[in-house]
Amino acid sequence: MTHSEPLLASTLAATPIPGILDLLSQSGPMAMVVLGLLGVLSVLSWAIMIERWRRFRAAERESRALREQLSVDAGNGGARELARNLAHSPLAALYTAFAEESDRLRARGILPPAGRASAEIAASSDARAHGALLRVLERTSLHQRRRFQRLLGFLATTATVAPFIGLFGTVWGIMNAFRTIGAVGGASIAAYAPGISEALVTTAAGLAAAIPAVAGYNYFIASVRHIDDDMDDFASDLLARLEVKGQ
Fold this sequence. Notes:
- By secondary structure, the chain is an all-alpha fold.
- The protein has one domain (26-59, 73-246).
- Helices cover 84% and strands 0% of the residues.
- The chain has helices at residues 4-14, 20-25, 29-72, 77-84, 90-107, 118-123, 126-149, 152-184, 189-246.
- The protein starts with a helix and ends with a helix.
């Protein structure tokens, strides 16, 4: 071991390791702008994910309550009242739209009152009633799908853009490091450390903003597909219930 090695070891041991706040304090104006933009994207992404998670959980809970009510309420009177009070459930919106359209069709004589014979249903153009109800269900399903997809585009944008914003900060930091090396005329740690720290911090910030956003986007898109399947099944059940009642 040379005499310089103990001196180097003692110097490294006495030198404090910079923390994240130290690295941020050494960052230049452009790096602070990049970090601020990534921070805004990250905060908004987390706020959207929390809001969407709460809305999806409420929708699932209310839809389960409506299905349970329909399974025990043969007359559907209680289910209709319950559906009006379930603001988050897409199935409740489908059921309310279906019930209101059924009432309008009965008022116009297109759909006969419940309990009439199937022959009378055929005589009163039940094909027109079926088509009208199907269009209402499809229109309501589309509206509900858009409601649950709201703000998810921001997560996709953050997942795509944040790494490139971080990469911009990385390139800028490396440029500063080389510019400083050129100015001092030598490659020393003191010369290029601030620029490298900028590059590493902005890279990490870009990944920290993008990874949760892409994970949340994939999760909620899968949840929207599940809601789509649930609405399709529920719409088929509603039309089947109408046909059974008319027999």
